[in-house]
Specification:
It is a single chain. The chain is an alpha+beta fold. The protein has a single domain, classed as Elongation Factor Tu (Ef-tu), domain 3 (Beta Barrel), CATH 2.40.30.200. The chain contains 2 helices and 9 strands, in the order E-E-E-E-E-E-H-E-E-E-H. The strands form 2 sheets. It has a 7-stranded antiparallel beta sheet with strand order 2-1-7-8-9-6-3, covered by helices on one side. A two-stranded antiparallel ribbon has the order 4-5. A hairpin with a 7-residue loop joins strand 4 and strand 5. Helix 1 crosses helix 2. The longest helix has 13 residues. The two termini are 26 Å apart. This is Putative phage tail assembly protein.
Length: 140
């Protein structure tokens, strides 16, 4: 397993990823001081995001079902648990965006190669009700 997002596992086949990007930062309030550079006051963590990039070969290996599940998770707006393949928990995230690019379009309109980018943003974990509703929305 390369990583897991909610119930979706990224593996070598059929649903893979070949690149990740992680961005984290800090937030500062700026205070103007006469005759000096503005002083900066740390006010907390900035938004933390991940981007997962991958390629599917649906005619050869599949992977379209997993992509549909990711769209359902995005539509639900529910927090998902994100874990790296080595078992390190990355925490709770929401799926902000899923971008798909299809090429080598087959006669049925489905690309033979589908590249995707998934943008995740750190979020609070769901409440007990939120977990149940998220699971229900994925399967309905």
């Amino acid at each position: 397993m390369l990583c897991q997002l909610g119930a979706t596992q990224f593996t070598v086949a059929p649903f893979n990823m070949h690149e990740t990007e992680h961005e984290a930062g800090a937030s500062f309030a700026s205070h103007e001081v006469l005759g000096k550079m503005p002083t900066l006051e740390f006010v907390g963590e900035a938004a933390e995001t991940w981007t997962i990039r991958g390629k599917l070969f649906p005619k050869r290996f599949g992977g379209m079902d997993e992509l549909s599940v990711l769209h359902a998770m995005r539509r639900s707006g529910a927090s998902q648990f994100f874990m790296r393949g080595d078992g390190i928990p990355m925490g709770w995230v929401v799926i902000e965006r899923v971008v798909e690019r299809s090429s080598y379009i087959a006669s049925d309109g489905v690309g033979k190669v589908i590249e995707f980018d998934i943008t995740l943003k750190r979020a609070d974990g769901p409440s007990a009700d939120g977990i149940f509703n998220a699971l229900l929305s994925i399967f309905t």
